[in-house]
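Handout, page 2. Input:
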Amino acid sequence: MARGRKSSLPHYSPELWADIQPALQHLEANTLRWSEQVLVEQRSISAIAGEAGVNRQTVHKAVTRVLAIVADHLEEDLRPVLVWVTEHQVPAVMALAAQYSGAKADTKSSQM
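Output:
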């Protein structure tokens, strides 16, 4: 952040950040870490870029990517839901989830 200027980026509470994690699960770890530092911890993009050894634009692009996803989900008033379903219901539930996450539906069930 430049001296004397306030960031125009939003500030998210830790609770909101936790709530939106399901929408962000397909993003890379660095994107999530840097975005949390900027949006929740209110750290400057410059400081994070310096620590990570990347340029400011890289961190800014990561934060912008997260903001776009969050805006879509908050605009639609979506909420994360954890449900247990039978094996034959998994493809339908995953297809529905993919409509809202922007990710390709993975209808393979995970074996535990």
